[in-house]
Amino acid sequence: MTELLQWARHHWHRLMNGRTQDEDERPYNYSSLLACGGKSSQTPKPAGKHRIVIPHLQCFKDEYERFSGTYVNNRIRTTKYTLLNFVPRNLFEQFHRAANLYFLFLVVLNWVPLVEAFQKEITMLPLVVVLTIIAIKDGLEDYRKYKIDKQINNLITKVYSRKEKKYVDCCWKNVSVGDFIRLSCNEIIPADLVLLFSTDPDGICHIETSGLDGESNLKQRQVVRGYAEQDSEVDPEKFSSRIECESPNNDLSRFRGFLEHSNKERVGLSKDNLLLRGCTIRNTEAVVGIVVYAGHETKAMLNNSGPRYKRSKLERRANTDVLWCVLLLVVMCLTGALGHGIWLSRYENMLFFNIPEPDGRVTSPVLTGFYVFWTMVILLQVLIPISLYVSIEIVKLGQIYFIQSDVEFYNEKMDSTIQCRALNITEDLGQIQYLFSDKTGTLTENKMVFRRCSVAGFDYCHEENAKRLESYQEAVCEEEECTDALSGSLSNMAKPRAHGCRTVHSGPSGKPSALLSGSKPAVGNEEGPGEVPHSRQAAFSSPMETDVVPDTRLLDKFSQISCQLFTPLDGTAQSPPLETLYIMDFFIALAICNTVVVSAPNQPRQKIGLSSLSGMPIKSLEEIKNIFQKLSVRRSSSPSLASGKEPTSGAPCAFVSRISFFSRTKLSPPIEDASSQMGESPQASNSACCTETEAQNSDIGLPAASASASASALNGPLSLASNLCYEAESPDEAALVYAARAYHCTLQSRTPEQVMVDFAALGSLTFQLLHILPFDSVRKRMSVVVRHPLSKQVVVYTKGADSVIMELLSVASPDGTNLEKQQLKIREKTQSHLDDYAKRGLRTLCIAKKVMSDTEYAEWLRDHFLAETSIDNREELLVESAMRLENKLTLLGATGIEDRLQEGVPESIEALHKAGIKIWMLTGDKQETAVNIAYACKLLEPDDKLFTLNTQSKDACGMLMSAILKELQKRTQASPEPASPRKVLPQPPDPRRSGRAGLVITGKTLEFVLQESLQKQFLELTAWCQAVVCCRATPLQKSEVVKLVRNHLHVMTLAIGDGANDVSMIQVADIGIGVSGQEGMQAVMASDFAISQFRHLGKLLLVHGHWCYTRLSNMILYFFYKNVAYVNLLFWYQFFCGFSGTSMTDYWVLIFFNLLFTSVPPIIYGVLEKDVSAETLLQLPELYQSGQQSEAYLPLTFWITLLDAFYQSLVCFFVPYFTYQGSDIDIFTFGNPLNTAALFIILLHLVIESKSLTWIHMLVIVGSLVSYFFFALAFGALCVTCNPPSNPYWIMQEHMLDPVFYLVCVLTTCVALLPRFVYRVLQGSMFPSPILRAKYFDRLAPEERAKALKKWRGTAKVNRETSAHASQSVAASDRPMTGSSAVLAMKSATSCAVEQENLPTCETVLDLGCSEPEASKMPGPSGHPA
Prior knowledge:
43% of the residues lie in helices and 14% in strands. It is globular. By secondary structure, it is of the alpha+beta class. Helix 5 packs parallel to helix 34 and helix 26 (954-971) runs parallel beside helix 29 (1012-1023). It has 46 helices and 39 strands. Strand 29 and strand 30 form a beta hairpin.
């Protein structure tokens, strides 16, 4: 009974809330369950009170039954409807549309006898047809979801049965909170579990979250503290603990709670102990967990707030015009009511016209006019286009089909194409005015390549590594050419990984071992559970990223690290050189300060049923692997060895205590000289670095390392370095670990308790892992706390952004000790290296350390434990605890990592700039890196005047913006046309006359400009700039910037990004685009459209966006035109029938005219119309500006269309009227030529407006005409008394034998369409728009077309140069200015002295400390004192 009540309560709750799901067909991919447009997972729902989880065991039976009523079972239901509620609920949802309510009102009104205009059934027909079409679509969509739900709910898992005392097979839908579940390798997790047991000896469980967030790299979860030490599997019958945790919420990155034993001892729980529904077990034989959240209370399901519904700008405009049509309808109905009242008052005494009621009373003209008003509303109902909304949905589906069918969006490497996740905003793609882009992974490849490093104040150029990267590009090209020559199709095959981590291991029978493991494949699907559609190699493991060639100078110094430095032969204690210790700690930090998961060859990444490989003999697979290995050019710095890992036993401290540097046994035979594989590096290439090093050596005061040390000193025991597979959560982490490996500091294994590193001559070092303080956007750093195996001290290794780490260093004064002086010099040298790295476009990180005494550590640990076991405010307490630890650091060095631009990015940005789109780069990188990338991708041009906003206070920020604005306004004072006001902010002049300007703003200053008092000034400044670069921006700041521009400037915005930190920005913009790159699928799942590369954005906007906007705009206008034109025929007839609400057309013809005869042609037009070819649109991006200015659908265009409809309706009515005037034809004989001529006029009007007529257009138009005549002939032949007292019998047959009928139709059509036809001819010949000129290019031969395009571009270029020269000349004449006029409360000077790589930049420098006389001496723009 309890389960029945629970089921009823849950389903009633879902029925009321109307929860919907994403439409992902694959039952194993829970990526659809992340934020698809509703609330972001970064804003979790409030937790409310805590949840107590009682084990589902016999001993807890009474207590479990008391709490189980508050739990939801594991059955999921993503459908909206059931068989019982489908009809009422679907109708309820459809009548949320105002148009449907309006027509329902007309249907009800027509049932009132006093105002009845049509037969009751006829009025219902349009509404019934529309409702039925949408209901069928919704029903089919919901049935597909039902089948997916059924598959998921009937998946099988192992659940502990308290009756049978063992694990039994159970469907997912029968799992409940408190159940113990046992999962095997490759199984999908059916509910949110707390991990209690893992077969891994270290208590680790590896999971893959690709089904949840798209990230294919492995992640570690660990058994609850206290259960990891168990030798045997946890016995549910002996489990006597309870779990208290937070209530269900949608935050995937947080889990707070504790496990309370029977003795009241508490153990803290975190996200590392939680296995989320939808993830897959990997590299672990079996795990056991207890369910804490089930079904719709799991985090994956709570993140599904349904697909977003965004209203496009065009749809909002159309809704406004529908209201105008309603107003027009009211005016026409009032005219009819007033006219009928006047008409009756004139014949008030004539009973023939004013028939009395049965009781003898005569209805007054006023009351009769009131009745006629409602009769006219029913008669003229077609004026409101009920079929418009259905047609718009059909057209958008057709547009999306063609977008997704575009082969140019296909990315062969990722086997992915564009995804259209929002179905109702395609036309907004053609109206974008501002584009906000992330940098890393969006403009760049997100393939992090280790390029340079600075250790102890010495810069190491890694020139050999740079040469390797250049040769790598050539090798890739050769590999692609050779691969194309291979027989058979290799494109459908998963490429084997370099380190063999993803290869399918075969069993004795030749089948993949994953199929022999006993794990059950998914229901009715060859793919494994959670398998992504295209199984790519593990993230961040391409040879370009993994193979690092060491710098020879650093390698020489590294080779001096040996056991003798720490344990001298004579027994005397001596400290190793400071630089040597820095180098050692630097590479240890690179190797262990991360969350990288290490996979060895004996722990393969198993996957079920790789469809492209499962049917292939393993011999063929090995042959292909060998081919790829031969083709790839790889220069590894650390040779592979065939030795295993050193076994570890006992506690870490015990292991460290047994270390002896002299008696350590060699686990591997000697290897060849490492230098023989790297080759000799030319001395000339290192001369610059060597010179700099010598100078640094003398400045810092460190002992110079001997240059005679050879790389061969590193020969010795190395582990399977090249065979280890590193699974990193970010490409930065992977790059640093691979760099450390290149210097023989190899991360070998990681467990929750310890990290083992193979460190060159020192052998394997095992660090006791005390704590990991993960990276977060507040601290911008991560740290690991370890006990060092050599010094036995507690050491904190930290890496993070240089702007943060530099502020946390210990204070060193120049007058302090010798060590402090050295640290101060190291800091200064490292800062200069960081600046140099950033100017080269490298991503920078600082590495630091801190040594703690046991007393300090114990004191910190006490407070940290309280934060870990807290449920409320745990995150805030943990951040505070981390900040207490991360201070007084010692700087070790810095790294520079290169992230290359994606292919085609500069060309795409240049095209988007020409299209009139303003592009902002929002990045978390430092200023120099962002500016360098901005120049590389042509976001900034070499001739741009660059202004920088970097202040420390709000007041200074405001004054600096004022100074920059004055400078910009001064440059454009000589513009021929003044800036026209645009709402609140002034419209900046054309950059072709005033020259381009760019703005760079840092994260700290961004906080100031986002405050309300500076927002208007900031937006006014950015309006003058063609490009804006925001550096050091947090995810929240990114979304705030987008929201500010969108809401205050009222412009169409687009945000594009690839990572989870871009989700909020993507969701705030009018259109959000996700890039399916290296950082998972969270941005994709929150987006409206998803692409695989930034260059695809160009065609998506310039071609498909332009087409979608133009097509839909013209189609909507056409709908308004044809409805008004046809309804006015009925209105004009009222002047000749006493405004009685009579129709000269049969009601069936009247209804079918809009519903059938003229409905399909505009839909085909909206799907297939092409005003300009795709090639021309890409070559002339300027054509995109017509969509930005909404030229196709302006208010003026709407009213001109209505006036044209009025004119055509007048011609269509009065030409037949005067033709048949004085004749004795009946009412339907008069109406038939009106209907026929109206059909010809409306269809030929569409032909005139079409820019590209295809055979499909003509087929549909001819089909509409044929269907009309067929219906009219059949209706006239069969319908003798269908609609008494009217009689359409044989009317069309008689007219088709009458020549006057043909003459009337031809004459009416020609006279009605003549003005529009003449206007289009004159427009195309005398004053063509850019679109029409571009359309003309499509008709030319290829050679003539190329000449015409060249002439177009040449003319535009000359105009730009002339305008720019004129503005520069006038600006030069105004250049001299006095110091007093330039200096106000703040002292601002514009300096163009900064020229780097021949790229002059103009930077506004703020100096609040200088006096006015000093400021007046500052160099002006010409380089001389002002």
